[in-house]
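Support request from a user on the community tier.

User writes: "When I paste my structure tokens into the form, the page sometimes reloads and wipes my input. The last time it worked, I copied everything first. Here is what I submitted, just in case something in the input itself triggers the reload:"
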């Protein structure tokens, strides 16, 4: 009876020992979304300033 209990304990320990290896956790990378600065407002700024300057020149 003791031999059967001992064999069962060894079989249980052996099964638990070979159950599997530690697995690295799956970590998803952090995605950083950076909004691009729009240069469209800078592209229209110079023509608007020129239009204002022409308007001032004509008004004089």
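"...and here is what came back when it finally went through:"
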């Amino acid at each position: 009876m003791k031999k059967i209990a001992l064999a069962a304990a060894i079989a249980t320990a052996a099964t638990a020992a070979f159950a599997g290896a530690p697995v690295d956790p799956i970590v998803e990378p952090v995605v950083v979304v950076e909004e691009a600065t729009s240069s469209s407002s800078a592209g229209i700024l110079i023509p608007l300033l020129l239009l204002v300057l022409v308007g001032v020149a004509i008004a004089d």
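Agent notes: The reload is a front-end session timeout and is unrelated to the input. The helical segments are 2-17, 40-59. The mean pLDDT is 77. Escalated to web team.
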